[in-house]
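Key result, reporting period 2: structure in, sequence out.
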């Protein structure tokens, strides 16, 4: 049961549009990145819908996230992009649940082969580090050694990938990383089923003839730094729970940072910084009631905020992120990135997933 009138509404038709747009613009399979609760959108609802699109891979960051999806009945192939701490039990779990791991270093691989893999085939994608200097192999000889030494080991080398550090910039660095990756692939000389490089921005702006899959996160949810036909798939709504007349010179909220210049109607809205709305939006962001813009007045509280109303007769649905201003606007105003705003949306917010306006699932 959900009682609090604050919710995120996710339009799965828009997700399908973005997914198919990314597929057609790249002419590759799309591995959908749903880590960090699908960038705040709700990883169960998003992944269950991706199942219906026969997505080739759903990418997560940890075994915990992968098992959360499997335990909720998600059936698509799962690829973990992050580090997995190995134990014999982890190996059994991963193998039984058909979860693909990333081979991230020679040390990690050497540990893997100390375990008994006889009845537990392990599928791996190798991560190559072409300049991000995070996870992955920099040395091709480590990779060839690894493949060579795994012959009797029940290991399936299914894929290989790299990750770009500046795909939002037109400075040639992404092309450089791609060429570096191609040279590595030539040296490794192995016939992988999957080769993948591009995150969202690279999917939209990089000419890549090396890979057969792309790995977008943010773009699936409707955002990119380059012009595109993507549509943001999530709106954020709440309702006014109380209206109040502020008398001239009265203040609002903690620290009394807003003072009414005249008698002013305000509305109390049950959403706050604990939901993921940055406190930096206090006195600095407008929500909407219909097309009427309503500024947030005073400091945003943990669970509530106050807005200035156009009149005392408006007590209605409040759009916190919609078509006029959205999560991207919030990021700009608080000097952060859309990724951070989205991924900080608290799991406590009710999420409603809709297809053709009908509820598909809630979480
Ligand atoms: C390895 C890897 N691939 C793909 C992505 C998706 O990136 P984006 O959301 O920019 O598309 C990420 C995101 O951080 C990542 O770490």
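The corresponding designed sequence is given below.
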């Amino acid at each position: 049961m959900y009682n609090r009138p604050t919710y995120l509404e996710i339009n799965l038709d828009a997700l399908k549009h973005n997914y198919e747009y990314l597929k057609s613009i790249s002419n590759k399979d799309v591995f959908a990145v749903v880590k960090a609760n699908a960038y705040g959108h709700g990883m169960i609802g998003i992944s269950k819908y991706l199942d219906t699109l026969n997505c080739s891979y759903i990418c997560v960051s940890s075994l915990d996230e992968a098992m959360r999806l499997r335990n909720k009945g998600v059936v698509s192939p799962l690829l973990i992009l992050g580090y997995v701490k190995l134990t014999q039990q982890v190996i059994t779990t991963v193998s039984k649940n058909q979860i693909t791991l990333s081979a991230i270093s020679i040390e990690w691989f050497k540990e893997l082969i100390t375990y008994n893999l006889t009845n537990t085939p392990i599928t791996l994608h190798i991560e190559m580090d072409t300049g991000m200097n995070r996870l992955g192999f920099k040395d091709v000889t480590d990779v060839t050694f690894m493949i060579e030494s795994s012959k009797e080991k029940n290991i399936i080398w299914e894929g290989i990938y790299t990750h770009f550090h500046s795909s939002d910039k037109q400075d040639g660095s992404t092309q450089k990383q791609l060429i570096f990756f191609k040279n590595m692939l030539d040296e490794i000389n192995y016939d992988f089923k999957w080769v993948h490089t591009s995150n969202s921005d690279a999917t939209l702006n990089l000419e890549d003839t090396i890979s057969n899959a792309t790995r977008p996160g943010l773009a699936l949810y409707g955002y990119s730094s380059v012009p595109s036909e993507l549509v943001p798939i999530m709106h954020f709504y709440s309702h006014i729970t109380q209206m109040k007349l502020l008398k001239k010179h009265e203040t609002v909220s903690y620290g009394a940072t807003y003072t009414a210049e005249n008698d002013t109607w305000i509305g109390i809205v049950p959403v706050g910084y604990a939901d993921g709305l940055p406190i930096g939006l206090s006195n600095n962001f407008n929500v909407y009631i219909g097309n009427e813009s309503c500024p947030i007045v005073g400091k945003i509280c943990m669970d509530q905020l106050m807005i200035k109303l156009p009149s005392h007769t408006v007590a209605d649905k409040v759009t916190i992120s919609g078509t006029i201003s959205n999560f991207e606007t919030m990021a700009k105003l608080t000097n952060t990135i859309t990724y951070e705003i989205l991924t900080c949306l608290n799991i406590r917010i009710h999420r409603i997933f809709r297809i053709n306006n009908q509820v598909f699932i809630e979480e």
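The chain has a mean pLDDT of 96. Residues 173-188 form the longest helix (16 residues). This case is discussed further under Risks and Mitigation.
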